[in-house]
Amino acid sequence: MDKLNNILNNFSFSQAESELYLACLKLHKATVSEIAEKAGVGRTVAYFHIKNLIKRNILKQLKKNKKIIITPVSPSELAERLQEQVGDFKSLIPKLENLSVAENEIPQIEIEDSKTAFEKIYDEVINMPIGSMWKVLEDRRGAEAELKLLDNTYWANFFSQMATRKILTKAIFTKELLQDVNKSITPENYAMLKKRQWDVHTISEELLPIKNFIVMYNNKISFMFPEISMTITIRHAALYYIIDTMFETIFALTEKVEAPWGKPNIKNIPPDTQTPQKATEEDIYY
Q: Which of 136, 174, 192, 223 has the CB geometry, 3.0–4.6 Å to 205, for a possible disulfide?
């Protein structure tokens, strides 16, 4: 009996409705009071649920000698109705799945116009897992405006965290950026820049005059406009794949730069500390 109740519960029968329907099957024809007694529930409760079952055409009522007699639909008829409901639901599955796909395909777009928006993106990058990678496409004008937007203290911390966490920057920089970036950065921060993990390819600004820059990480594409302190970030897997494919195509066709900022100065570091050590969580601070 418990198994029958469980099956009926799966088809929107409450526990009381299941008990009352089963009681009706046993009695075949009965009054509300007789059904309530058989099911072991109060008459008022029985009346409420029987009324609902009648509305759903699971129970039927007829008058006999001025009394209301309740009869159940047969189990086979009920099974056919439940099967019809299952069929109706199955017919909706493609539409429901399309709703899910459509929801997943809607890009999440954030447009912000403040320095904080830039800091938010950089903070997300430095908090990626140790050894992660982000991608950057940038020219000289974009780099100069970017470095002026935030103060030297912020950049010192950002560069330090990037180096400590060994986060790789895979970048396509213009040749003009690499030639002039040291003019827009303090010597201390430039030295820290050299300690970061880099995989840089370069191209002439004549071929890539973007005047701003793009960063890519965690299925996000951020279009950065530092001159007006604005960012447009799009999160969308399919769109990310397209832009990433374009990035990798340009990357493969451009010239690799082995030491974009020159080699780090290690002449004053003791010999036993020159070998890079693998970063651990204990090394991290922020």
A: 174
DSSP of 83-141: HHHHHHHHHHHHHHHHHHHHHHHSPEEEEE-SHHHHHHHHHHHHTSPTT-EEEEEE-HH
> Residue 170: CB partners within 8 Å, gap ≥ 6?
133, 134, 135, 136, 199, 200, 251
Same domain flag for 10 and 128 = no
Put residue 86 in one of left, alpha, beta given phi > 0 → left and psi -120 to 50 → alpha: alpha
Cα separation, 67 vs 102, whole angstroms: 55
CB neighbourhood size of 5 (10 A): 16
Q: Is 227 helix (H, G, I), strand (E, B) or coil?
A: helix
Same domain, 134 and 77: no
Report which residue type is found at 77: E
Pairing of strands 213-217, 67-72: unpaired
Spell out the per-residue pLDDT of the chain, length 286, in tens.
Answer: 566 666 676 666 888 888 888 888 888 889 989 999 988 888 888 889 999 888 888 888 888 887 889 998 888 888 887 777 777 777 777 766 666 555 557 888 999 999 999 999 999 999 999 999 999 999 999 999 999 999 999 999 999 999 999 999 999 999 999 998 888 889 999 999 899 999 999 999 888 888 899 999 999 999 999 999 999 999 988 889 999 999 999 999 999 998 888 754 434 334 444 444 444 443 433 3
Question: Would you say residue 84 lies in a domain?
Answer: yes
pTM of the model: 0.57
**Residue that is last in its domain, among 88, 121, 152:** 88
Which residues pair with residue 61 across a beta bridge?
Answer: 70
Question: Is 148 in the same domain as 84?
Answer: no
Sequence-distant (6+) residues with CB within 8 A of 195 are 159, 163, 264
> Cα(145)–Cα(178) distance, rounded to whole angstroms?
15
